Amino acid sequence: MRAVGAILISLVLTTAVIGNAYYQKKQFYPSVVYITKSNPSMAVIYLQAFILVILMGKLMRKVFFGQLRAAEFEHLMERSWYAVTETCLAFTVFRDDFSPKFIALFTLLLFLKSFHWLAEDRVDYMERSPVISWLFHIRVLSLLLMLGFLDTHFVCHAYQSTVTKGASVQLVFGFEYAILLTIIVNILIKYALHTVDLNSENPWENKAVFLLYTELVMGFFKVLLYLAFVVIMVRIYTLPLFALRPMYYTMRAFKKAFNDVILSRRAIHNMNTLYPDATPEELAAADNVCIICREEMVTASKKLPCNHIFHTSCLRSWFQRQQTCPTCRLNILRTPTAPSHAPPPQPAAAPAAGGAAGPAPAGVAPPGLGMAPIPPGVNPFQPFGGPGPIWHMWQQAAAAAGQRAGDQQQQQQQPRQQQQQSSGSGSGGQSTSASGSGANAPSNQAGGASGGGAQPPQQPGTSTGSNVPVFCPFPFLPFMPPPPMPPANFAGLSLEELQRMEGHARENVEARLQCLRNIQLLLDASVTMMHQYSMVVQSTARMPPPSSPPQASTSANNTSSEPVPKPSVTPAETRHKFEKGDNLEGAAGPSINTTTTPTTTTTETGNSEASPVNDETREQQEIRRRRLQKFAQTSQTTE
Amino acid sequence: MAGSALRRLMAEYKQLTLNPPEGIIAGPINEENFFEWEALITGPEGTCFEGGVFPAKLIFPPDYPLSPPKMQFTCEMFHPNIYADGRVCISILHAPGDDPMGYESSAERWSPVQSVEKILLSVVSMLAEPNDESGANVDAAKMWREDRAEFNRIAERIVRKTLGIPTP
């Protein structure tokens, strides 16, 4: 009612102004001159023009959209408010060009923009509307074609004008219409996708993926356009404040599209590699309805480790947001698909290789055994999608070392060692899965190898609940941390334990803290152990190097399945750690000297004969031994 | 084929019409727009809301069922878990990512397995047993804890109001 009133008033005013002018001047041209010269008359004419434009817009809207939905109207109002503000900001940059034509062009731009927004909303709504009539298709198509044509025309016009007359406000128009053109292309692609989907009998599963990629590519073009525009504007005029807000939103949308694509790709990848397709029998056993879309599963469906079955496409879109099973909320990334945890309760191998390595290789042996202090139970990398490569390497090395221990100790008659020998050689076979026994073995072996000087500060076996014979004759470390109770392998954590660590309640936080503390203890322990290694190296350097050890470790190398070059790399790392350990803890006295020697002398003899010598590896060993001596010297000098 | 959100909403509507749960009516306000529903919930028996019929509005996001709908009572409500403007605050309506109250475990959050029916049933049980730990309406939570008689009196007034019976 108010709108009609405003229209009528403006109409009456215009008639009055024109009538008055004609009444005074009697002729056409003088009256036109009179109106343009008089400011009040011009104001009325402008008002009338504005109202005519709005009426025109309403008419066009009726033709192309019919009744607007409430959400569309709200959206339109919100966006046009911003657009008007930004236009006012643009006026400040181009105040020299200010003229009625300039305002008319901006008004036209605003109108076209609002039609683009409405078209976008309409096409988005296609997916949610139960009935799509022919009228809808005709309207959308004709509107898109018309808008696309207008955009191209204005872009060309702006380009021509800039080329012929130099940079002017046409730059802004050209850029704005170019942005609008990308929007049109985006809408067209969406429209095509939706139409294809609507006309197909079965749901089109890849549509969401296509939409994602469209969004990404179009977002990229828009970001490029905005960047180019800002650069040009800064060089010619000044910083275009009015373009900053849309630029920010465009960049944010692009980032989101990028993230979405990455997440989607990850979800697809996970699904294709980790989860098996559900078989018809499994589908029949379940009630055959995908709980996400509530439709029958006749098309591709996947089974999760928790035995819940869903449509592949439904799962994909859900995994993009959450990596949990929709039904039981099992975290699918934390749960390995194959039941890989078989906690070996057998006592792990212990100082088996005590004889294998003499005093000198005590520092050499750790390459394979460097991980010894880290018990197999604790693997902080595991939650992030399975064992990392380092962990694998460690486990293999551990298994190899275990095997080595078993092989070499055949002549040794100590009952304890026999017991461990079996577990050691057993673990040698299963390289990764038997990480429990495999990694335990070398840890104790390291203890023996260094004559006990490098006894692991805590027994990893405690985690798996195995009763490893504690081989710890060295109480000389007052700061030795008590054996923590590290969680068994995260994969082996029970659902309860995992759930206990989720959430924000006090107990959950405490559980997490406990877990972190365990990890810290383990880290401390490994630092301690490194320190001890370094002391052993020092002590061995002070002693005259015995002749047999190289052979002993050579044999160890022969039997191990490891590639030969690896040990030659690792000493560098260990040495690095030694120095670190020295810095951290300060050097302890060379008291190990006395303790190491007895053990080594006893074991040395049995081993030097037991191992066959290979020429190639001997060379390698010689190099390694010399390098070690050098390390020892450097570490001495650094002290 | 229409969008998956639309198909799922249609399926749920059909299910709710064929097997309506006791004390709950729900459906789209307008059959041309399946993303806005209206629901009528009767107050659970044996509670202070007994006998009331409470209208509510459900707004579904375009990516339903991946995101939860929003629910808002359109009548006056006085309840610890309902904001003054009628919005309902229960964990089942919160996406697993955000935690407005900082106390909910992810196990009770939204997941595509939930449905309109489950939401409305949860709301009924919320009416019966308010959770005064999470105060969407702090006044109501305080009164529920400290002055139950007054709370019951207000609830009765609201029940009468929804039924159009003048308060005595």
TrEMBL record, chain A:
Residues 290-329 form the RING-type domain. The chain crosses the membrane at residues 43-60, 102-119, 131-150, 171-193. It is found in: Endoplasmic reticulum membrane. One of its GO terms (cellular component) is endoplasmic reticulum membrane. Keywords: Endoplasmic reticulum, Membrane, Metal-binding, Transferase, Transmembrane, Transmembrane helix, Ubl conjugation pathway, Zinc, Zinc-finger. The lineage of its organism: Eukaryota, Metazoa, Ecdysozoa, Arthropoda, Hexapoda. Gene3D superfamilies: Zinc/RING finger domain, C3HC4 (zinc finger). Belongs to the HRD1 family. GO terms for molecular function: ubiquitin protein ligase activity; zinc ion binding. Its EC number is 2.3.2.27. Residues 336-361, 396-467, 540-639 are annotated as: Disordered. It is a multi-pass membrane protein. One of its GO terms (biological process) is proteasome-mediated ubiquitin-dependent protein catabolic process. Residues 349-361, 396-447, 594-605 have a biased composition (Low complexity). This is RING-type E3 ubiquitin transferase. It catalyses: S-ubiquitinyl-[E2 ubiquitin-conjugating enzyme]-L-cysteine + [acceptor protein]-L-lysine = [E2 ubiquitin-conjugating enzyme]-L-cysteine + N(6)-ubiquitinyl-[acceptor protein]-L-lysine. Residues 573-583 have a biased composition (Basic and acidic residues). Pathway: Protein modification; protein ubiquitination.
From TrEMBL, chain B:
GO terms for biological process: ERAD pathway. Keywords: ATP-binding, Nucleotide-binding, Transferase, Ubl conjugation pathway. The active site is at residue 89. It comes from the Eukaryota. Coiled coil: none annotated. Residues 4-164 form the UBC core domain. InterPro entries: Ub_conjugating_enzyme, UBC, UBQ-conjugating_AS, UBQ-conjugating_enzyme/RWD. Its EC number is 2.3.2.23. Interacts with AUP1 (via C-terminus); the interaction recruits UBE2G2 to lipid droplets. Interacts with ubiquitin ligases AMFR/gp78 and RNF139/TRC8; recruitment to lipid droplets by AUP1 facilitates interaction of UBE2G2 with AMFR and RNF139, leading to sterol-induced ubiquitination of 3-hydroxy-3-methylglutaryl coenzyme A reductase and its subsequent proteasomal degradation. This is Ubiquitin-conjugating enzyme E2 G2.
